Amino acid sequence: MTTATPLGDTTFFSLNMTTRGEDFLYKSSGAIVAGVVVVVIIIFTVVLILLKMYNRKMRTRRELEPKGPKPTAPSAVGPNNNGSQHPATVTFSPVDVHVETR
């Protein structure tokens, strides 16, 4: 006659394995977080260095390129030409309106 093995041992064994796996995850979670933080810092540093290099390259290119002629404002040849480069402005002043009261 064969005897049946109790199911409680099997459940205890799988529960024990799950606890060991979870224990390993809990113990290694600090290392995982530290690794993620290090990777994020490295990526941030690389992006910062690339942006600084790009900025320096663009600045030197901007400084070395020949300056084109600046666009000049059309000169006014009319009677209001007094030699200044300021555009003519029109100023409206409010009209005094007197209302008679009775």
TrEMBL record:
Q: Where are the transmembrane segments?
A: 31-51
- Give start-end positions of Polar residues composition bias: 78-92
Q: Write the record's keywords in alphabetical order, separated by commas.
A: Membrane, Transmembrane, Transmembrane helix
Gene Ontology molecular functions: structural constituent of myelin sheath
BP-aspect Gene Ontology terms: peripheral nervous system myelin formation; regulation of myelination
Q: Which GO terms describe its cellular component?
A: paranode region of axon; plasma membrane; Schmidt-Lanterman incisure
> Which region ranges are annotated with the description Disordered?
60-102
- What protein name applies here? Non-compact myelin associated protein
Tell me the organism: Aotus nancymaae (Ma's night monkey)
Per the record, the gene is NCMAP
